[in-house]
# Entry
Amino acid sequence: MTPAVRTLDLSRQFRAVRALDQLTLEVPPGIIFGFLGPNGSGKTTTIRLLLGLLEPTSGNAEVLGYNTQTHAEAIRQQCGALLEHTGLYERLSAEDNLDLYARFWRLPPAARRARIKDLLTDLDLWDRRGEVVAGWSRGMKQKLAIARALLHRPTLVFLDEPTAGLDPIAAVALRDHLSRLSANDGVTVFLTTHNLAEAERLCALVGVVRSGRLLAVGPPGQLSAGHDALRIEITGSGLTAPMLAMLGGLRGVTSARPDGRYLTVNLQSAADAPSVIRALVSAGFQLESVRNSAGSLDDVFQSLMEAP
Amino acid sequence: MSDAGAVAWKEWRELIGQRGLSGKQGIVLFAVTFGILLPLMNGRAWITSPMTALAWSWVPMFLVMTVIADAFAGERERHTLETLLASRLSDGAILFGKMGAAIGYAGILTVVCLILGLLTVNLAHRQSGLVLYAPSVILAMCVLGLLGAVFVAAMGVLISLRAATVRQAQQTLGAVIMVFLLVPVGLVTLLPTAWTHSMNLDAVGAARLAVLGLAAFAALDAGVVILAMAKFARTRLVAV
# Structure
């Protein structure tokens, strides 16, 4: 099956800045792919390159089987996009914004009206469809921009920080919507996010990028499992400052953070855990429980960002 | 509706949606001033004077100037350009939709003002009998008006493509149009007197010269439009 996205040594240079550095990536169709990285790491540049809005300095990319440099129009035909900015026409109403893009996508009038009603109802915006967008909150604009990206039932959707500005309830609803899109309709979702918990819950595959370089790619669970570092959560009482200082000096302990009756200790590897527990108990800590908190995507991300 | 038509529809909706004198209010004010007030003040001369054709020929050009600078610079300023470029629309649809919207707006407003003026003068001076624009005046207004509007629209798009802000685009376009209008006048005044005396044209000679001038204007329009098409490249428009 043709991958939804395939890049080979894709690079983009802006004068002295290498925004993307030899990105080689393959995203299978029908999944939600999370592209993670700090600000300025090359996520937005990647989306622009994949949509044919920028030309690569070297390397090449294919989206839905089309080369981004020679068949960008065919790619845009089948993709939806929510980019860095919502891109809404603020002098127009919500309904007019969608109607405009529905015309761009050549939806017949009846289908256009029905689709707009469905999407606005789904996103809880139907009652406010006649309002000019300029006065809306960031979250509402974000929801409308997402509706616009999905309007023409694209095969592949690029979403740059889709839940930014959404309240928690709206964010959960959007995540559910995206999951359904992928599971039921086979739509590929390529999203960038800073929210690692969101990526962990939502994405079948994630890629971590830093300074334009892809550092890791794989299913979130696999990345976490392959992560050597370990976090243990210790519950008990009697923790003192000298005990914490002693912990900090133990071999293999990268950090120890107390929080009431809980103590979270980050270790370099699982082999260091027994010695930490022994040292704590010997020092007089009244141990109640120890929980092995498998490395989360957050841990993986942190360690990748901190790596030299 | 064609893709270019959809883009033009969007441009008009945005134009009308603007607040204050840039939007609906400005359009109504213009139509009332040039369609009712000035015709009332000038009487039948508003329709019959040869200056009418000359003056109205330039109106579409100036109307286009007021809106075209916004075409790309405005979208860039309001962060809507990238999303528009990420849509399925072709380069031609975006370019000609924007140009068409500006030319259409100017054309429609000019025609509305001319019709209003005609009605106003005939109603106000109905005792003097019906007065109409001469066919030659209508033809001159249409041809010159269209050529001027196309020139400014294409030039405006070219400038707007590169301008960082609408204000910058407006200022640059204003300067370019000023040069475009003043240079030919300046060149004529620089001609040797012997030449200008020898150009004592009869009616046929004047008509030939007019046709030649219009053909040159049309060629200039075509050149600027082709240049605008060549310069419109999505991959160079997205801000980085």
